[in-house]
Amino acid sequence: MKSYLALFCLSLGGSQIAQGFVAPQNSGFRVSTTIKNSFDVFSEELANEESSSARRSLIHSAAAASFSLALGGAIVPAVNADVGTLPEFGDSEAIIQGLTVNVSDKSQLDGMVEFLVKGFDFQILRQRIRDTVEEIWLGYGPEQLSIPGDFEIPVSSFAKYGGHMSLKLVLDSRVMKPLYKGGDDAPGNNIDFLQVGVPGYRISQMVASGGKILDAYGLVNVVSPSGFPMRGIVGITPDPIMLVAVNCKDVKESKAFYEKLGFVEQEYPYSRPSKGTTIFEPAPPAKSVYMAPSAGCMGVLLQPTKKRITPNPAVESLNIVYNPTNGNDGDGLLLTDPSGLGIRFMSASTFTEEEKKTR
Ligand SMILES: *[C@@H]1O[C@H](CO)[C@@H](O)[C@H](O)[C@H]1NC(C)=O
Predict the structure, then answer these.
(1) Whose CA is nearest to atom 13 of ligand 1?
(2) Which domains, and CATH codes, for the chain?
(3) 199 alpha carbon to ligand 1 midpoint, in Å?
């Protein structure tokens, strides 16, 4: 793998492309022949592209690398290989399982947990501490990809059913670089917000735990204590974690990127019966596109912006759980979308194992 990547970078005359493709250490990630071939084709393409246009940005190159990978078959999952056994994901080959948010220090981690639990009614689902790294997963119900053993129809509420998305907080105490200073605006704008649709939220609790309220007319826009922007809407949805709004320089380009990963344009989800006609839940911006890998999971809202896009350092990745075509090919893969948002892949089997262990 290493030697291959080295060769790959060499042929580009630079190393920046490796940013779009990070194989984790000791993950046992194997490169299949199809991917190798597509790398070859791709490095030629990109070499031509680079010489013809020096203006192309690093982000663009990284996104282009992702395309090639997806086409190589690494992450376009097998047909008839469903994610888990939940009927909701019956036809799904991949789902967005959630997001990973990096926090700067222990007080931000505590502030984030309090903010999510008291402000938005998140629950702590699981946690783990390994060496210097502390991880906490929060969400609105079990994440497992099968129906939990204690779930009873019709006695149990949906909150006890499986397949919930989650927000993962990561504190690495070795990392000294502060990602965000409390009270500031979000430290980047590639993610506009994570939208949750909840029966109710508490603005006073958000403020008490270090959140910065941006506006609260009908809905609430708030920068969380670690610099991760959120939007709360009072509404009812199967899973309150609804979508991530991503600012895009070119929505078409971003749409094409997500299509290559198997995302499909879907009907925009509303949590209120007024369907976008009120200030409580406005319609998505003109020319935006809503996409998800399956109808049963959260999605991305690709929104056009004229502003210069800077990645938010507090956001580590959007996490996709998928069924690999070939062994565990692609497990642990990290790509970067055209807005600089990390997209991390985890196979359903790795996810299931880790989820059980950390509960
Ligand atoms: C998030 O934290 C992890 C663990 O320290 C680190 O490897 C990763 O690079 C961080 N991500 C960002 C976007 O800074």
Answers:
(1) 316
(2) 5-29+78-358 (3.10.180.10)
(3) 33
247-286 per-position pLDDT tens digit? 999 999 999 999 988 899 999 999 998 999 999 999 999 9
Asked if residue 20 has pLDDT above 60, the reply is no
The HSE-up count of residue 26 (CA atoms within 13 Å, CB side) is 0
Which atom, in ligand 1's list, is nearest to the CA of 315?
Answer: 13
Which one of 25, 102, 130, 131 would you pick to mutate in the ligand 1 pocket, going by the greatest count of ligand atoms within 8 A of its CB? 102
pLDDT digit string, tens, across residues 39-51: 333 333 333 333 3
Using a cut of 0.85, tell me whether the model's pTM lies above it.
Answer: no
Q: Of all atoms in ligand 1, which is nearest to the CA of residue 170?
A: 2
Q: Please list, residue by residue across 206-229, b when 16 or more beta carbons sit within 10 angstroms of its beta carbon and e when fewer do.
A: beebbbbeeeeeebbbbbbbbbbb
> Separation of 126 CA from ligand 1 center, angstroms?
20
Q: What value does the mean pLDDT take over residues 219-223?
A: 97
At residue 207, φ and ψ (nearest 5 deg) are: -65, -45
Nearest residue by C-alpha to atom 11 in ligand 1: 316
